[in-house]
Specification:
Elements lengths: L12 H7 L2 H18 L5 H12 L6 H25 L3 H17 L10 H19 L25 H10 L4 H12 L4 H8 L3 H18 L11
Helix pairs in contact: 1-10, 2-7, 3-4, 3-5, 4-5, 4-6, 5-6, 6-9, 8-10, 9-10
Length: 231
């Protein structure tokens, strides 16, 4: 069943989604990834330091493999922080969310199954932590539907970044469920199946949300009016 909030963005979302050309989808995907590249630090120093402190405590026969686990955490930090920024309202809150995720992942490192999607596993921990905090502190929760999301961070003031700031502010107007799916698939590069596992829904639901989000965002940004070559 289609979620009521997902229908708010488009009068006929399926028709708009079908009308998007491959070039428009590619251009929108490039803008999403470029915007994210500016939104996040490569590897926040204090979070790297936290992982390094954890690895210094290692000893015994599993020390080498667990040190590798720590390096894997460092490598995925940019993606993890980007996802946290898409859920939280402030960079400080996002960093707190990432820190809690790192600590939980470390405490449960023996539960990770080698060969499975490490990034998706961490995203699931982070998402569960975020919504767990919401349930505990409902009166302190910021607008999780995106009304305040445009205030997450400020991109640099250079002229060539104005368009990317517009992408971020426009994306904040999407329903939360659509924005989350679009970020996981369009910006983070997860498969529909992996994104569905993170969110805890059917693959078809993710496909529908991403399709609707792409269509609305392309229209809102004017990308659906990109001139097509004459025949």
């Amino acid at each position: 069943m289609t979620e009521p909030k997902d229908m708010l963005c488009l009068a006929d979302p399926a028709a708009h989604a079908a009308a998007l050309t491959a070039s428009v989808r590619d251009h929108l995907g490039a803008q999403l990834r470029e915007t994210y590249a500016l939104l996040i630090e490569e590897r926040p120093a204090h979070l790297v330091a936290l992982i390094e402190r954890l690895t210094t405590l290692l000893d015994g026969q599993d020390a080498a493999s667990e040190a590798r686990f720590g390096q894997d955490l460092i490598e995925v930090l940019p993606a993890l922080r980007a996802f946290a920024l898409s859920l939280a309202v402030s960079p400080a809150r996002a960093d707190d969310l990432v820190q809690e995720t790192l600590l939980k992942a470390w405490a449960n490192r023996n539960r990770f199954q080698p060969g499975t999607n490490f990034t998706a596993w961490l995203f699931t921990i982070l998402r569960n932590q975020f919504y767990s905090e919401i349930r505990k502190h409902r009166r302190e929760v910021e607008d999780v539907d995106g009304a305040a999301a445009s205030a997450l961070v400020c991109l640099p003031d250079q002229v060539d970044h104005i368009a990317l700031q517009n992408v971020w502010a426009t994306m904040a107007k999407l329903p939360a469920a659509q924005r989350e799916a679009l970020i996981l698939v369009g910006a983070q590069g997860l498969t529909y199946e992996a994104a569905a596992a993170v969110i805890g829904c059917q693959t078809g639901t993710v496909k529908s949300r991403v399709s609707r989000a792409r269509a609305w965002l392309a229209e809102a940004l004017g990308l659906d009016r990109i001139e097509q070559p004459s025949v």
